[in-house]
Design brief:
By secondary structure, the chain is α/β, with parallel strands linked by helices. The protein is built from 17 helices and 14 strands. A 6-stranded parallel beta sheet has the order 3-2-1-4-5-6, sandwiched between helices. Helix 1 packs across helix 3 (54-61) and helix 9 (209-240) packs parallel to helix 12 (290-317). It starts with a strand and ends in a 10-residue tail after the last strand. The structure holds nicotinamide-adenine-dinucleotide. Residues 7-13, 33-35, 38, 72, 85-88, 105, 108-109, 127-128, 157, 159, 161, 271-272 line the site of nicotinamide-adenine-dinucleotide.
Protein backbone atom coordinates (compact mmCIF):
# COMPACT_ATOMS: atom_id res chain seq x y z
CA UNK A 1 0.00 0.00 0.00
CA UNK A 2 1.17 3.49 -0.87
CA UNK A 3 -0.06 6.80 0.43
CA UNK A 4 -0.77 9.29 -2.31
CA UNK A 5 -0.99 12.86 -1.08
CA UNK A 6 -2.32 15.85 -2.97
CA UNK A 7 -1.73 19.42 -1.84
CA UNK A 8 -4.56 21.59 -3.17
CA UNK A 9 -8.20 20.47 -3.06
CA UNK A 10 -9.53 22.53 -5.95
CA UNK A 11 -11.10 21.81 -9.32
CA UNK A 12 -8.15 19.61 -10.21
CA UNK A 13 -6.96 18.11 -6.91
CA UNK A 14 -10.40 16.97 -5.67
CA UNK A 15 -11.75 15.19 -8.77
CA UNK A 16 -8.35 13.78 -9.80
CA UNK A 17 -7.69 12.20 -6.43
CA UNK A 18 -11.25 10.87 -6.15
CA UNK A 19 -10.78 8.98 -9.42
CA UNK A 20 -7.34 7.68 -8.38
CA UNK A 21 -8.83 6.48 -5.07
CA UNK A 22 -11.64 4.75 -6.93
CA UNK A 23 -9.31 2.82 -9.21
CA UNK A 24 -6.54 2.12 -6.70
CA UNK A 25 -8.38 0.68 -3.69
CA UNK A 26 -5.14 -0.70 -2.24
CA UNK A 27 -3.68 2.83 -1.91
CA UNK A 28 -4.62 5.54 0.56
CA UNK A 29 -5.28 8.96 -0.98
CA UNK A 30 -5.09 12.09 1.17
CA UNK A 31 -6.07 15.52 -0.15
CA UNK A 32 -4.88 18.49 1.91
CA UNK A 33 -5.66 22.19 1.64
CA UNK A 34 -5.15 25.32 3.73
CA UNK A 35 -8.73 26.37 3.03
CA UNK A 36 -10.74 24.94 5.94
CA UNK A 37 -14.10 25.78 4.39
CA UNK A 38 -13.19 23.92 1.23
CA UNK A 39 -12.04 20.85 3.14
CA UNK A 40 -15.22 20.86 5.25
CA UNK A 41 -17.24 21.01 2.03
CA UNK A 42 -15.33 18.05 0.57
CA UNK A 43 -16.21 16.15 3.73
CA UNK A 44 -19.91 17.03 3.45
CA UNK A 45 -22.79 16.30 1.07
CA UNK A 46 -22.31 19.72 -0.52
CA UNK A 47 -19.04 19.42 -2.41
CA UNK A 48 -17.23 22.70 -3.06
CA UNK A 49 -17.41 22.27 -6.83
CA UNK A 50 -20.07 21.08 -9.21
CA UNK A 51 -19.12 18.42 -11.76
CA UNK A 52 -21.46 15.82 -13.23
CA UNK A 53 -20.73 12.43 -11.61
CA UNK A 54 -18.33 13.84 -9.01
CA UNK A 55 -20.47 13.37 -5.91
CA UNK A 56 -21.10 9.69 -6.80
CA UNK A 57 -17.36 8.99 -7.10
CA UNK A 58 -16.52 10.91 -3.93
CA UNK A 59 -19.20 9.25 -1.82
CA UNK A 60 -18.13 5.80 -3.01
CA UNK A 61 -14.54 6.22 -1.78
CA UNK A 62 -14.55 8.90 0.93
CA UNK A 63 -13.47 7.49 4.28
CA UNK A 64 -12.67 4.20 2.49
CA UNK A 65 -9.37 5.25 0.90
CA UNK A 66 -9.98 8.94 0.17
CA UNK A 67 -9.50 11.46 2.95
CA UNK A 68 -9.62 15.26 3.11
CA UNK A 69 -7.62 17.20 5.67
CA UNK A 70 -6.21 20.59 6.60
CA UNK A 71 -3.23 18.94 8.27
CA UNK A 72 -0.75 19.49 5.47
CA UNK A 73 2.28 18.46 7.51
CA UNK A 74 0.82 15.07 8.28
CA UNK A 75 -0.27 14.59 4.69
CA UNK A 76 3.27 15.34 3.49
CA UNK A 77 4.82 13.06 6.09
CA UNK A 78 2.59 10.17 5.06
CA UNK A 79 2.82 10.60 1.29
CA UNK A 80 5.01 8.36 -0.87
CA UNK A 81 3.90 10.30 -3.91
CA UNK A 82 2.97 13.95 -3.38
CA UNK A 83 0.92 15.68 -6.05
CA UNK A 84 1.00 19.46 -5.97
CA UNK A 85 -2.18 20.94 -7.36
CA UNK A 86 -2.19 24.43 -5.89
CA UNK A 87 -3.35 27.43 -7.90
CA UNK A 88 -0.91 29.19 -10.22
CA UNK A 89 -2.82 32.36 -11.21
CA UNK A 90 -1.52 35.18 -13.34
CA UNK A 91 0.76 37.50 -11.41
CA UNK A 92 -0.94 40.79 -10.51
CA UNK A 93 2.12 42.65 -9.26
CA UNK A 94 5.76 43.37 -10.02
CA UNK A 95 7.73 41.95 -12.92
CA UNK A 96 5.61 40.09 -15.45
CA UNK A 97 2.37 41.40 -13.88
CA UNK A 98 -0.65 40.45 -16.01
CA UNK A 99 1.29 37.73 -17.84
CA UNK A 100 3.68 35.60 -15.82
CA UNK A 101 2.48 32.84 -13.51
CA UNK A 102 2.35 33.71 -9.81
CA UNK A 103 4.40 30.90 -8.30
CA UNK A 104 4.21 31.90 -4.65
CA UNK A 105 1.75 29.13 -3.61
CA UNK A 106 3.78 26.62 -5.52
CA UNK A 107 7.07 27.66 -3.92
CA UNK A 108 5.56 27.71 -0.42
CA UNK A 109 4.41 24.15 -0.95
CA UNK A 110 7.87 23.09 -2.15
CA UNK A 111 9.44 24.56 0.98
CA UNK A 112 6.88 22.87 3.18
CA UNK A 113 7.56 19.50 1.53
CA UNK A 114 11.27 19.97 2.25
CA UNK A 115 10.57 20.97 5.86
CA UNK A 116 8.10 18.19 6.67
CA UNK A 117 9.44 15.20 4.74
CA UNK A 118 10.90 12.42 6.90
CA UNK A 119 11.83 10.26 3.88
CA UNK A 120 12.43 10.21 0.10
CA UNK A 121 9.49 11.47 -1.93
CA UNK A 122 8.24 11.58 -5.49
CA UNK A 123 6.84 15.07 -6.03
CA UNK A 124 4.43 15.47 -8.94
CA UNK A 125 3.66 18.80 -10.57
CA UNK A 126 -0.06 18.65 -11.28
CA UNK A 127 -0.51 22.42 -11.43
CA UNK A 128 0.14 24.09 -14.77
CA UNK A 129 3.57 25.71 -14.61
CA UNK A 130 6.06 27.54 -16.79
CA UNK A 131 8.69 25.38 -18.47
CA UNK A 132 11.64 24.58 -16.22
CA UNK A 133 9.72 24.99 -12.96
CA UNK A 134 10.68 21.42 -12.07
CA UNK A 135 14.30 22.56 -12.03
CA UNK A 136 13.44 25.31 -9.55
CA UNK A 137 11.43 22.81 -7.51
CA UNK A 138 14.38 20.41 -7.48
CA UNK A 139 16.73 23.17 -6.33
CA UNK A 140 14.45 24.18 -3.47
CA UNK A 141 13.94 20.58 -2.39
CA UNK A 142 17.69 19.95 -2.38
CA UNK A 143 18.64 23.37 -1.01
CA UNK A 144 19.73 21.89 2.29
CA UNK A 145 20.97 18.44 3.04
CA UNK A 146 17.87 16.82 4.47
CA UNK A 147 19.34 13.39 3.75
CA UNK A 148 16.36 12.61 1.50
CA UNK A 149 16.01 12.46 -2.27
CA UNK A 150 13.14 14.18 -4.06
CA UNK A 151 12.34 13.18 -7.59
CA UNK A 152 10.24 15.80 -9.38
CA UNK A 153 7.85 14.68 -12.12
CA UNK A 154 5.59 16.70 -14.37
CA UNK A 155 2.10 15.27 -14.83
CA UNK A 156 -0.08 18.08 -16.20
CA UNK A 157 -3.83 17.69 -15.98
CA UNK A 158 -5.84 17.86 -19.20
CA UNK A 159 -9.34 17.50 -17.73
CA UNK A 160 -11.95 19.99 -18.86
CA UNK A 161 -14.36 21.41 -16.30
CA UNK A 162 -17.90 20.23 -16.91
CA UNK A 163 -16.63 16.84 -18.10
CA UNK A 164 -13.91 16.32 -15.48
CA UNK A 165 -15.02 12.88 -14.34
CA UNK A 166 -15.51 11.58 -17.87
CA UNK A 167 -12.10 12.98 -18.87
CA UNK A 168 -10.39 11.47 -15.84
CA UNK A 169 -12.05 8.08 -16.28
CA UNK A 170 -11.26 7.93 -19.97
CA UNK A 171 -8.44 10.35 -20.77
CA UNK A 172 -7.21 10.89 -24.34
CA UNK A 173 -3.76 10.61 -22.80
CA UNK A 174 -1.89 10.91 -19.53
CA UNK A 175 1.45 12.68 -19.79
CA UNK A 176 4.31 12.03 -17.38
CA UNK A 177 7.62 13.84 -17.63
CA UNK A 178 10.67 12.79 -15.65
CA UNK A 179 14.44 13.03 -15.65
CA UNK A 180 16.28 10.65 -17.95
CA UNK A 181 18.29 9.20 -15.06
CA UNK A 182 17.66 5.78 -13.44
CA UNK A 183 16.07 7.50 -10.40
CA UNK A 184 13.96 9.72 -12.66
CA UNK A 185 12.79 6.77 -14.74
CA UNK A 186 11.96 4.72 -11.61
CA UNK A 187 9.78 7.58 -10.38
CA UNK A 188 8.08 7.81 -13.79
CA UNK A 189 7.38 4.08 -13.61
CA UNK A 190 5.83 4.42 -10.14
CA UNK A 191 3.38 6.98 -11.49
CA UNK A 192 2.72 4.99 -14.66
CA UNK A 193 1.78 2.07 -12.40
CA UNK A 194 -0.87 4.20 -10.67
CA UNK A 195 -2.55 5.32 -13.91
CA UNK A 196 -2.21 1.86 -15.48
CA UNK A 197 -4.91 0.70 -13.01
CA UNK A 198 -7.47 2.08 -15.46
CA UNK A 199 -5.78 3.91 -18.37
CA UNK A 200 -4.64 1.75 -21.32
CA UNK A 201 -0.84 1.67 -21.36
CA UNK A 202 -0.60 3.09 -24.89
CA UNK A 203 -2.36 6.25 -23.71
CA UNK A 204 0.18 6.90 -20.96
CA UNK A 205 2.86 9.00 -22.61
CA UNK A 206 6.22 9.62 -21.06
CA UNK A 207 8.50 12.52 -21.97
CA UNK A 208 11.30 14.62 -20.63
CA UNK A 209 10.23 17.09 -17.94
CA UNK A 210 10.47 20.22 -20.09
CA UNK A 211 8.42 18.73 -22.93
CA UNK A 212 5.77 17.69 -20.43
CA UNK A 213 5.57 21.11 -18.78
CA UNK A 214 5.46 22.88 -22.14
CA UNK A 215 2.87 20.51 -23.64
CA UNK A 216 0.24 21.64 -21.16
CA UNK A 217 0.66 25.31 -22.09
CA UNK A 218 0.70 24.44 -25.78
CA UNK A 219 -2.42 22.24 -25.56
CA UNK A 220 -4.39 25.09 -23.99
CA UNK A 221 -2.97 27.63 -26.43
CA UNK A 222 -4.04 25.47 -29.42
CA UNK A 223 -7.53 24.90 -28.01
CA UNK A 224 -8.07 28.59 -27.31
CA UNK A 225 -6.63 29.46 -30.71
CA UNK A 226 -9.31 27.37 -32.42
CA UNK A 227 -12.04 29.26 -30.57
CA UNK A 228 -10.51 32.62 -31.45
CA UNK A 229 -10.09 31.51 -35.06
CA UNK A 230 -13.74 30.58 -35.49
CA UNK A 231 -14.83 33.69 -33.58
CA UNK A 232 -12.78 35.88 -35.90
CA UNK A 233 -14.60 34.25 -38.82
CA UNK A 234 -17.96 34.84 -37.10
CA UNK A 235 -17.36 38.58 -37.41
CA UNK A 236 -16.73 38.16 -41.12
CA UNK A 237 -19.85 36.01 -41.45
CA UNK A 238 -21.98 38.72 -39.88
CA UNK A 239 -20.53 41.26 -42.29
CA UNK A 240 -21.06 39.13 -45.40
CA UNK A 241 -24.18 37.06 -44.81
CA UNK A 242 -22.34 33.75 -44.43
CA UNK A 243 -23.36 31.48 -41.54
CA UNK A 244 -20.54 30.53 -39.17
CA UNK A 245 -22.15 27.20 -38.29
CA UNK A 246 -22.26 26.24 -41.95
CA UNK A 247 -18.65 27.32 -42.39
CA UNK A 248 -17.57 25.40 -39.27
CA UNK A 249 -19.36 22.30 -40.52
CA UNK A 250 -17.80 22.57 -43.96
CA UNK A 251 -14.25 22.97 -42.69
CA UNK A 252 -14.75 20.48 -39.83
CA UNK A 253 -15.41 17.70 -42.32
CA UNK A 254 -11.80 18.03 -43.42
CA UNK A 255 -10.14 15.28 -41.41
CA UNK A 256 -7.02 17.42 -41.02
CA UNK A 257 -9.09 20.10 -39.27
CA UNK A 258 -11.77 18.02 -37.52
CA UNK A 259 -15.11 19.19 -36.12
CA UNK A 260 -14.35 19.86 -32.45
CA UNK A 261 -13.89 23.27 -30.81
CA UNK A 262 -15.31 25.13 -33.81
CA UNK A 263 -18.35 26.55 -32.03
CA UNK A 264 -18.50 30.34 -32.34
CA UNK A 265 -19.52 32.10 -29.14
CA UNK A 266 -19.06 35.13 -26.93
CA UNK A 267 -15.60 33.77 -26.24
CA UNK A 268 -13.70 31.37 -24.06
CA UNK A 269 -13.39 31.65 -20.31
CA UNK A 270 -12.24 29.52 -17.42
CA UNK A 271 -9.29 29.85 -15.16
CA UNK A 272 -6.81 28.34 -17.61
CA UNK A 273 -6.90 29.41 -21.25
CA UNK A 274 -6.09 33.09 -20.83
CA UNK A 275 -3.68 32.50 -17.97
CA UNK A 276 -1.78 29.76 -19.78
CA UNK A 277 -1.51 31.67 -23.06
CA UNK A 278 -0.23 34.75 -21.24
CA UNK A 279 2.22 32.54 -19.45
CA UNK A 280 3.37 31.19 -22.84
CA UNK A 281 3.65 34.75 -24.15
CA UNK A 282 5.75 35.73 -21.16
CA UNK A 283 8.00 32.72 -21.63
CA UNK A 284 8.54 33.60 -25.29
CA UNK A 285 9.42 37.16 -24.36
CA UNK A 286 11.83 35.89 -21.73
CA UNK A 287 13.64 33.93 -24.44
CA UNK A 288 13.59 36.93 -26.82
CA UNK A 289 11.04 35.31 -29.16
CA UNK A 290 8.95 38.44 -29.62
CA UNK A 291 7.21 37.45 -32.88
CA UNK A 292 6.11 34.18 -31.31
CA UNK A 293 4.84 36.09 -28.27
CA UNK A 294 2.82 38.51 -30.45
CA UNK A 295 1.33 35.59 -32.39
CA UNK A 296 -0.12 33.93 -29.29
CA UNK A 297 -1.09 37.18 -27.61
CA UNK A 298 -3.51 37.81 -30.46
CA UNK A 299 -5.57 34.77 -29.40
CA UNK A 300 -6.44 36.58 -26.15
CA UNK A 301 -7.00 39.92 -27.89
CA UNK A 302 -9.46 38.28 -30.31
CA UNK A 303 -11.35 36.75 -27.39
CA UNK A 304 -11.86 40.13 -25.74
CA UNK A 305 -12.83 41.70 -29.05
CA UNK A 306 -15.54 39.06 -29.49
CA UNK A 307 -17.22 39.92 -26.16
CA UNK A 308 -17.00 43.65 -26.87
CA UNK A 309 -18.40 43.13 -30.36
CA UNK A 310 -21.35 41.25 -28.89
CA UNK A 311 -22.22 44.09 -26.52
CA UNK A 312 -21.82 46.62 -29.37
CA UNK A 313 -24.33 44.61 -31.31
CA UNK A 314 -26.81 44.52 -28.43
CA UNK A 315 -26.66 48.27 -27.92
CA UNK A 316 -26.93 49.03 -31.62
CA UNK A 317 -29.82 46.63 -32.15
CA UNK A 318 -31.77 47.94 -29.18
CA UNK A 319 -32.00 51.36 -30.82
CA UNK A 320 -28.63 52.58 -29.49
CA UNK A 321 -29.70 52.73 -25.87
CA UNK A 322 -30.12 50.12 -23.19
CA UNK A 323 -30.24 52.58 -20.31
CA UNK A 324 -32.99 51.57 -17.89
CA UNK A 325 -33.85 48.45 -19.92
CA UNK A 326 -34.08 45.13 -18.14
CA UNK A 327 -31.72 42.57 -19.66
CA UNK A 328 -31.90 38.96 -18.50
CA UNK A 329 -28.53 37.26 -18.73
CA UNK A 330 -29.09 33.51 -19.14
CA UNK A 331 -26.01 31.79 -17.77
CA UNK A 332 -22.99 33.13 -15.94
CA UNK A 333 -20.72 30.07 -15.67
CA UNK A 334 -17.90 30.14 -18.21
CA UNK A 335 -19.44 27.07 -19.85
CA UNK A 336 -22.27 24.62 -19.25
CA UNK A 337 -22.17 21.93 -16.55
CA UNK A 338 -19.91 23.82 -14.18
CA UNK A 339 -20.49 26.38 -11.46
CA UNK A 340 -17.10 27.95 -12.18
CA UNK A 341 -17.19 31.59 -13.29
CA UNK A 342 -13.48 32.33 -13.38
CA UNK A 343 -12.71 34.51 -16.45
CA UNK A 344 -16.25 33.90 -17.68
CA UNK A 345 -17.09 36.15 -20.66
CA UNK A 346 -20.33 36.93 -18.79
CA UNK A 347 -18.35 39.01 -16.28
CA UNK A 348 -17.05 41.41 -18.90
CA UNK A 349 -20.40 41.51 -20.71
CA UNK A 350 -22.42 42.27 -17.55
CA UNK A 351 -19.99 45.01 -16.61
CA UNK A 352 -20.40 46.62 -20.01
CA UNK A 353 -24.20 46.35 -19.85
CA UNK A 354 -24.07 47.95 -16.42
CA UNK A 355 -21.84 50.74 -17.75
CA UNK A 356 -24.56 51.41 -20.34
CA UNK A 357 -26.96 51.68 -17.38
CA UNK A 358 -28.99 48.64 -18.27
CA UNK A 359 -30.82 46.90 -15.46
CA UNK A 360 -29.10 43.52 -15.43
CA UNK A 361 -30.69 40.33 -14.04
CA UNK A 362 -28.45 37.27 -13.95
CA UNK A 363 -29.76 33.73 -13.83
CA UNK A 364 -27.75 30.49 -13.77
CA UNK A 365 -28.50 26.98 -12.47
CA UNK A 366 -25.16 26.59 -10.66
CA UNK A 367 -23.16 29.80 -10.60
CA UNK A 368 -25.32 32.52 -9.01
CA UNK A 369 -23.32 32.67 -5.80
CA UNK A 370 -20.07 33.19 -7.67
CA UNK A 371 -21.77 35.64 -10.04
CA UNK A 372 -22.82 37.80 -7.09
CA UNK A 373 -19.25 37.73 -5.81
CA UNK A 374 -17.75 38.56 -9.22
CA UNK A 375 -20.03 41.58 -9.62
CA UNK A 376 -20.12 42.54 -5.95
CA UNK A 377 -18.79 46.04 -6.60
CA UNK A 378 -21.79 46.80 -8.83
CA UNK A 379 -24.02 46.56 -5.75
CA UNK A 380 -27.79 46.32 -5.91
CA UNK A 381 -28.00 47.43 -9.49
CA UNK A 382 -27.51 43.83 -10.61
CA UNK A 383 -30.10 41.26 -9.57
CA UNK A 384 -29.64 37.51 -9.22
CA UNK A 385 -32.60 35.26 -9.94
CA UNK A 386 -32.44 31.46 -9.98
CA UNK A 387 -35.64 31.12 -12.04
CA UNK A 388 -35.12 32.05 -15.72
CA UNK A 389 -38.84 32.72 -16.19
CA UNK A 390 -38.81 35.32 -13.45
CA UNK A 391 -35.54 36.78 -14.74
CA UNK A 392 -37.18 37.32 -18.13
CA UNK A 393 -40.35 38.90 -16.73
CA UNK A 394 -40.59 42.46 -17.99
CA UNK A 395 -37.22 42.18 -19.75
CA UNK A 396 -36.48 43.92 -23.04
CA UNK A 397 -33.89 41.33 -23.96
CA UNK A 398 -32.49 37.92 -23.08
CA UNK A 399 -28.80 37.38 -23.55
CA UNK A 400 -27.60 33.78 -23.56
CA UNK A 401 -24.08 33.70 -22.16
CA UNK A 402 -23.79 30.01 -21.19
CA UNK A 403 -24.97 27.03 -23.25
CA UNK A 404 -26.89 25.23 -20.47
CA UNK A 405 -29.20 22.53 -21.92
CA UNK A 406 -32.00 23.77 -19.71
CA UNK A 407 -32.23 27.03 -21.70
CA UNK A 408 -33.14 25.06 -24.82
CA UNK A 409 -36.01 23.41 -23.00
CA UNK A 410 -37.78 26.50 -21.65
CA UNK A 411 -41.31 27.51 -22.64
CA UNK A 412 -40.45 30.50 -24.81
CA UNK A 413 -44.11 31.18 -25.58
CA UNK A 414 -44.60 31.91 -21.89
CA UNK A 415 -41.37 33.93 -21.74
CA UNK A 416 -42.35 35.98 -24.79
CA UNK A 417 -45.72 36.84 -23.28
CA UNK A 418 -44.05 38.24 -20.14
CA UNK A 419 -41.42 40.38 -21.92
CA UNK A 420 -41.46 43.94 -23.22
CA UNK A 421 -41.87 44.20 -27.00
CA UNK A 422 -40.03 44.02 -29.27
CA UNK A 423 -38.61 41.07 -27.34
CA UNK A 424 -34.96 40.52 -28.23
CA UNK A 425 -32.86 37.40 -27.81
CA UNK A 426 -29.10 37.64 -28.27
CA UNK A 427 -27.80 34.10 -28.42
CA UNK A 428 -24.13 34.34 -27.51
CA UNK A 429 -23.71 30.57 -27.74
CA UNK A 430 -25.83 29.73 -30.79
CA UNK A 431 -27.62 27.22 -28.65
CA UNK A 432 -31.33 28.01 -29.16
CA UNK A 433 -33.66 27.17 -32.05
CA UNK A 434 -33.66 30.56 -33.76
CA UNK A 435 -36.30 29.83 -36.39
CA UNK A 436 -38.74 28.56 -33.77
CA UNK A 437 -38.12 31.66 -31.63
CA UNK A 438 -38.69 33.94 -34.61
CA UNK A 439 -41.94 32.06 -35.18
CA UNK A 440 -43.02 33.05 -31.68
CA UNK A 441 -42.31 36.72 -32.39
CA UNK A 442 -38.81 37.16 -30.94
CA UNK A 443 -36.19 39.32 -32.64
CA UNK A 444 -33.22 36.93 -32.62
CA UNK A 445 -29.55 37.81 -33.03
CA UNK A 446 -26.92 35.12 -32.99
CA UNK A 447 -23.17 34.96 -33.36
CA UNK A 448 -21.92 34.78 -36.94
CA UNK A 449 -25.38 34.34 -38.41
CA UNK A 450 -27.19 36.32 -41.08
CA UNK A 451 -29.84 38.58 -39.59
CA UNK A 452 -33.40 37.82 -40.74
CA UNK A 453 -34.66 40.46 -43.20
CA UNK A 454 -37.53 41.64 -41.03
CA UNK A 455 -35.15 42.47 -38.21
CA UNK A 456 -32.73 44.61 -40.17
N1 LIG B 1 -9.41 24.11 -13.35
C1 LIG B 1 -9.07 23.41 -14.40
O1 LIG B 1 -9.89 23.05 -15.24
C2 LIG B 1 -7.63 22.99 -14.59
C3 LIG B 1 -7.34 22.02 -15.56
C4 LIG B 1 -6.01 21.63 -15.72
C5 LIG B 1 -5.02 22.20 -14.94
N2 LIG B 1 -5.31 23.15 -14.03
C6 LIG B 1 -4.22 23.70 -13.22
O2 LIG B 1 -4.25 23.05 -11.96
C7 LIG B 1 -3.85 23.96 -10.91
C8 LIG B 1 -4.93 24.05 -9.86
O3 LIG B 1 -6.10 24.55 -10.50
P1 LIG B 1 -7.51 24.53 -9.77
O4 LIG B 1 -8.51 25.00 -10.77
O5 LIG B 1 -7.70 23.22 -9.09
O6 LIG B 1 -7.27 25.67 -8.67
P2 LIG B 1 -8.12 25.98 -7.36
O7 LIG B 1 -7.88 27.40 -7.04
O8 LIG B 1 -9.52 25.47 -7.53
O9 LIG B 1 -7.44 25.06 -6.23
C9 LIG B 1 -6.18 25.27 -5.71
C10 LIG B 1 -6.23 24.95 -4.23
O10 LIG B 1 -4.91 25.03 -3.71
C11 LIG B 1 -4.98 25.49 -2.37
N3 LIG B 1 -3.69 25.97 -1.92
C12 LIG B 1 -3.01 27.08 -2.30
N4 LIG B 1 -1.85 27.19 -1.63
C13 LIG B 1 -1.77 26.12 -0.81
C14 LIG B 1 -0.81 25.65 0.13
N5 LIG B 1 0.32 26.33 0.33
N6 LIG B 1 -1.08 24.53 0.82
C15 LIG B 1 -2.24 23.84 0.60
N7 LIG B 1 -3.18 24.22 -0.27
C16 LIG B 1 -2.95 25.34 -0.97
C17 LIG B 1 -6.04 26.55 -2.43
O11 LIG B 1 -6.59 26.81 -1.15
C18 LIG B 1 -7.06 25.94 -3.40
O12 LIG B 1 -8.10 25.24 -2.73
C19 LIG B 1 -3.54 25.28 -11.61
O13 LIG B 1 -2.17 25.33 -11.91
C20 LIG B 1 -4.33 25.17 -12.91
O14 LIG B 1 -3.74 25.94 -13.95
C21 LIG B 1 -6.60 23.55 -13.83
Amino acid sequence: MKTITCIGAGYVGGPTMAVIAKHCPEHRVVVADIDEGRIRAWQSDHLPIYEPGLSEVVSSVRERNLFFTTDITEAIQAGDIIFVSVNTPTKTFGRGAGRAADLQYWEKTARQILRDSPSDKIVVEKSTLPVRTAAAMGRILHSRDSGHRFEVLSNPEFLAEGTAIRDLENPDRVLIGGRETPAGQAAVQALVDIYAHWVPRERILTANVWSSELSKLVANAFLAQRISSINSISALCEATGADVQEVARAIGFDSRIGPKFLQASVGFGGSCFKKDILNLVYLCETYGLNEVARYWEQVVAMNEYQGDRFVDKIVKTMFNTIAGKRIAVFGFAFKANTGDTRESPAIRICRQLHAERASVVVTDPQALEYAARDLEDLGDSVQYEPDPYRAAEGAHAILVATEWDTYRELDYDRIYAAMEKPAFIFDGRNTLDHDALRGLGFQVYAIGKPTAQAEE
